[in-house]
Design goal:
Chain lengths: 433, 251
């Protein structure tokens, strides 16, 4: 590598590389689009399509959040404001369209949401982005509270406690497309997911997108190479608001209702959790996080009333043990994968998985029994857990779950370092030993 | 001769404490000059005033004839002044290539563009690679800057400073903490990358100062006590007193 390429040959090589890279990137986006098209035909359970729609909205929202956190180093506790405002404006736009006040077909409604998100980001961003770090985080919290208070004051716009409802079936048609079935809405969301994800990816490859990373790393230095850190943050902030607004618009089209909750602190917290769980250092991270988070959210809530607790534990575990998130965890294996050494990891990983499941069963059992005893269900004597009837008022199940937790934890302490060492060995450069 | 940099009765106080106490200094274009002085004399503060990091308490600073007093660092940089830092100040998570590229983007007119694709900008690519070759960091281009060795980071620091093509370069202790051979390397690098430009550098290594500088300014307790050719500075009694004979001993 140390021998320099002849100067004359280099520009050509770069050109070819970037051109084939562009083609590959185009192929990748096309592949993603195709996958999204066939997914409803592959996964045939009736709940799949609404959940995939929900995932799509979460993906756009989480990607826009990561424009702030991952790429710009701005930790926002109020990003749902732009999602919610976009959603409300999209809902009002849809109602206006339904009343034939304007010609706005359903597929373009998310753009109205995007515009709303952008305008509000331009206003709030003007003072939010003066500083990054703690100051930014505090202001984002303040703006979130401000909007929550406004939702009670501006009743006509936010619809008070009931929120704003709309009806996409009444809007004018574009190319005769109707959006009455779940699957039709899914395709509309999938279309916007691909378009916005491609746009956000492209943004990260522009001069301002690259400089956003530089400002995240070292605002002072960026200032001394000609950039105003504040302006760079502002542009990122506005772009993030735009895409959050589009996500909110998709939400309005999908659910046909918006309440103040959609722009509240909980919604802002959820997007932070999913983005972080997915991994803020990679473009793929928020996508993975949104898919996993939404899946767990909709699956777990069917089985247990304390699903939020489990998501919280997942978040804590991510922060403590895998700060790079799911995408980071995946990328850790890239060298081993290239060297063809992934099969060697199966054994150590299987051990970790077994002990992990044992510990999880123990912890979940203990939590569920506690929840059972503390809630109104407790008039009954037994509860079904993991397919068995257990009696939370006797000592035996408690002892069993505590024992499982202990065995799992001890096993993990033994197995986890071995798995880490195996990974390090598999990632080691050079020929395999 | 054109004046690259002109300081006129510049004062700076932090609270009641005066740090810079009336500095007037003219740096002619195309010269390499050194700013020396004992610790705490205010050398880095003076750099921070010139580059806009701190506002002056009073006085005027002109860059190539243009008043820059009170301007932001990014505005001053766009007028053609660039600086390095005493403590390495790079983008640790970005690759070495991206570190240099950040400094190239504004200068080549890409500014806050979100309609260009940065990998397709051939002029950016070429300028960045030229600088990396000068720095001898071509082989390390894909490595995150944070994992470079100290000497490599110092070289990168200089690279970021000069990549934008500024014609007035301020280097703050470019050789601090380096071994003899590393220092020689950096001196050679500085000579190369500042050819035809104006250089003002703070430096403690008198070997480097007398090797590189056409003129030397001596700052003691916030005042310039001498500004002259290396030979005359060496013979200057006031400088010798301030330095307790260090310049003579070191050379």
């Amino acid at each position: 590598m140390s021998t320099p390429t002849p100067a004359a040959a280099r520009p050509l090589a770069i050109d070819q590389a970037s051109r084939s890279g562009g083609l590959r990137a185009f192929g990748l986006w096309l592949g993603v689009a195709l996958l999204l098209v066939v997914l409803p035909f592959v996964i045939r359970t009736p709940v799949a399509v609404p959940i995939m729609s929900q995932m799509g909205i979460a993906i756009v929202f989480a990607l826009s959040f990561n424009m702030l956190l991952g790429q710009g180093g701005m930790l926002s506790f109020g990003h749902a404001v732009y999602f919610g405002v976009g959603g409300f404006i999209a809902a009002h736009a849809l109602n206006l369209a339904a009343a034939r006040g304007v010609y706005l077909p359903v597929p373009l409604v998310p753009l109205a949401g995007g515009l709303g998100g952008l305008v509000f980001a331009m206003i709030f961003g003007a003072f939010s982005t003066i500083r990054s770090g703690t100051v930014f985080a505090m202001i984002s919290l303040g703006v979130g509270e401000l909007m929550a208070a406004s939702s009670l004051i501006f009743d006509r716009f936010f619809g008070g406690e009931e929120g704003i409802t709309t009806n996409r079936a009444k809007a004018p048609l574009l190319f005769g497309l109707t959006f009455t079935k779940d699957r039709e809405v899914y395709y509309l969301i999938a279309f916007w997911v691909v378009v916005t994800a491609a746009a956000m990816y492209a943004f990260s490859r522009t001069p301002i997108g690259r400089i956003a990373n530089a400002v995240r790393d070292n605002p002072e230095r960026a200032e001394f190479v000609g950039y105003s850190p504040r302006w760079v943050r502002y542009v990122s902030f506005c772009a993030a608001g735009l895409f959050a607004g589009i996500a909110g618009g998709l939400f309005a089209v999908n659910y046909e209702i918006l309440t103040a909750e959609n722009m509240g602190l909980n919604a802002s917290g959820a997007v932070l959790l999913m983005t972080y769980i997915g991994g803020i250092g990679y473009f793929l991270g928020p996508i993975m996080g949104a898919v996993v988070f939404t899946f767990l959210q909709s699956m777990l809530s069917d089985y247990t009333g304390i699903w939020l607790l489990y998501l919280g534990i997942l978040f804590l575990a991510t922060v403590l043990f895998v700060p790079a998130g799911l995408a980071g965890l995946l990328m850790l294996h890239a060298p081993a994968w290239r060297a063809g050494r992934l099969p060697r990891l199966i054994g150590p990983y299987l051990l970790v998985a077994v002990f992990g499941v044992v510990a999880a069963v123990g912890v979940v059992g203990a939590f569920e029994m506690t929840h059972f005893l503390a809630s109104a269900e407790s008039t009954r004597a037994t509860k079904r857990l993991f397919g068995v009837a257990v009696a939370p008022r006797t000592a035996a199940p408690w002892l069993a779950f505590i024992a499982l937790t202990a065995v799992g934890a001890l096993g993990l302490r033994w197995a986890a370092p071995r798995a880490t060492a195996a990974l390090a060995e598999a990632n080691r450069p050079g020929p395999s030993r | 001769m054109m004046r690259a940099l002109e300081l006129q009765d510049v004062h700076k106080a932090f609270g009641p404490t005066p740090i810079i106490r009336g500095v007037s200094l003219t740096i002619e274009a195309g010269t390499r000059q050194a700013l020396i002085g004992p610790n705490g004399a205010g050398k880095s503060t003076l750099f921070n005033l010139i580059t806009g990091k701190y506002p002056v308490s009073s006085g005027h600073i002109r860059l190539k004839g243009a008043e820059v007093t009170g301007r932001r660092p990014n505005e001053i940089n766009r007028l053609g002044l660039s600086r390095s830092f005493q403590v390495t100040n790079i983008f640790p998570q970005l690759s070495v290539f991206e570190n240099v590229r950040c400094s190239v983007l504004w200068a080549l007119g890409y500014r806050y563009s979100f309609w260009h694709r940065v990998n397709r900008a051939r002029d950016v690519q070429e300028r960045t690679e030229t600088v990396l070759e000068q720095l001898n960091l071509m082989a390390r281009r894909h490595v995150p800057a944070g994992v470079l060795s100290y000497a490599e980071q110092r070289a990168l620091e200089i690279g970021i400073t000069i990549a934008g093509g500024a014609d007035v370069i301020l280097l703050d202790e470019p050789t601090s903490g380096m071994s003899r051979s590393e220092t020689e390397h950096v001196v050679q690098l500085i000579r190369e990358v500042t050819a035809g430009k104006t250089l003002l550098m703070v430096e403690h290594d008198m070997g480097v100062v007398f090797d590189l500088a056409d003129r030397i300014a001596v700052l003691v307790y916030g005042e310039i006590i001498a500004h002259d050719t290396p030979e005359r500075i060496r013979a200057n009694a006031a400088v010798q007193e301030a330095y307790l004979g260090v310049p003579q001993g070191a050379v």
